[in-house]
Amino acid sequence: MRLLACHLVPLALLLGCHSTAVIGNPPGDLGAPVDGGRPSLDLGGPGDLGTPDFGAACPFRQPDFACHNEEGGAMQPIAGQPFELPVFVGRTGECFCGETVACEVRVRPDGAVELTTGFCQEGPLCDACFPTIEGRCAVPALDAGEHDVFIDGQLAMALQVLPAGVRPPFSPRCIAPQRIPDRTACNDFELSAPGPPGFDSLCHPVESFVGARVDLTVATSCDSCIDAPGPCEVIVTGDTLTVVPRRREGTCEVDCPAICFSNESRCVTPPLPEGDYRVIVEGSGVTSALRVTSVPSFPVETVCILP
Q1: Using CA atoms, how far apart are residues 256 and 227, in angstroms rounded to an integer?
Q2: Are strands 45-46 and 100-107 parallel, antiparallel or unpaired?
Q3: 271-275, long-range: CB within 8 Å, 24+ apart, which pairs?
C-alpha cells in the first residue's frame, strides 16, 4: 500500500517563505519556520513487499537527509506505536516549488526498515522558492530495540525504539546518507564503526539563524581508492552537537595506487534554538564552537578545525 498526499501553501515573503503546518500539530499551530521556510508534505505509508513503482512522474531520488525526534516534528519511536520518519530533499542549492516526495516503507523479518523514495516533479506553479522539500514516511509499529534503517538500499541510521511506558529523552538527530563518488573502483562496501579513526577535519559556519539547520562537513585526507563517504549523523544533546561520521570501506580486490584520496561527509543538524553550542566529532579530538542567534553577522565566517 502506498499513500501519497501533499499540503502546499507557497507564500512569497521578502526574506524567503514560511512553512505550512507540520502534520501532527494541532489545527492552527503552524510551528516555527525553519530553513528560511519550506513546504511540509504528508506522504508515505506502510508498503507491501512488491517492487515500488511511483511512475514516470516520480523518478527515484535519494533524500539528502532524514530526521527524527525534532521539536514540532516526528518524535522518538515507541514500541507498538506507528510513527512518521521525516525525509528531506534539498539544501543542495536547488530551488523547489510544488514538488512532492513519494515514500514506500517495508519492514524486514529481522526488524530492519527499508525506505524507497521518489521525487515527484509535477506540482502547482508558484512564485516561492523553497530550499527543502519535506516528506513523512509512515512506519508501522516496531518492537523495542535498535532497528537498522535503509534508505534506497543504503544503511542510513540505527533507529532506537523505546519500550512502551518509557519517557523518551529529547535528543533530536538528523542523518545524511552519502552518495558513492563516481570515481570509486568498488561497489561492495562494509560500513565502518561510527566516528574516527580517519576523519581529520571539521568545517562549519561559526554562526547561524535561530531555527535553521546547519551544514557541517567532516573530511578525510587519506582514504583508499575504494573507500567512500558513509552516512553522517548529528545528535543534539543540550548544548552539544555530536557529529557521528561513518565510512564505506571497499571490500573489492582492487590494486589501489599508493596515494591518498580525500572524501567529505556532509552532515546536517536539526533546527537549533538560540544559544552557544559545542561541536564535537565522536571519538576524536575535533571540537569547535557554533553560535545560534537571531541576528548573525554578515558575511558568515566558516571555521575548519583539525585534531
Answers
A1: 10
A2: parallel
A3: 271/32, 271/34, 271/35, 271/70, 271/71, 271/211, 271/212, 271/213, 272/208, 272/210, 272/211, 272/212, 272/213, 272/214, 272/236, 273/210, 273/211, 274/210, 275/239
Grid cell locating 262: 580525500
Say how far residue 207 (Cα) sits from the centre of its chain.
21
pLDDT tens-digit map of 101-160: 888 999 999 999 999 888 887 666 667 778 888 888 999 999 999 898 888 777 787 888
Write the pLDDT tens digit of every residue in 218-265.
Answer: 888 788 888 888 889 999 999 999 999 888 888 888 888 888 888 888
Pick from 283, 306, 279, 289: nearest CA to 220: 306
- C-alpha to C-alpha distance for 303 and 231, rounded to whole angstroms: 22
In whole angstroms, what is the distance from residue 149 CA to residue 151 CA?
6
pTM of the model: 0.75
Within 8 A by CB and 6+ apart from 207, the residues are 290, 291, 292, 293, 296, 297, 300, 301
Q: Are strands 261-268 and 154-161 parallel, antiparallel or unpaired?
A: unpaired
> pLDDT value at position 237?
92
Of 177, 297, 189, the closest CA to residue 248 belongs to 189
240 contacts 172 by C-beta, under 8 angstroms: no
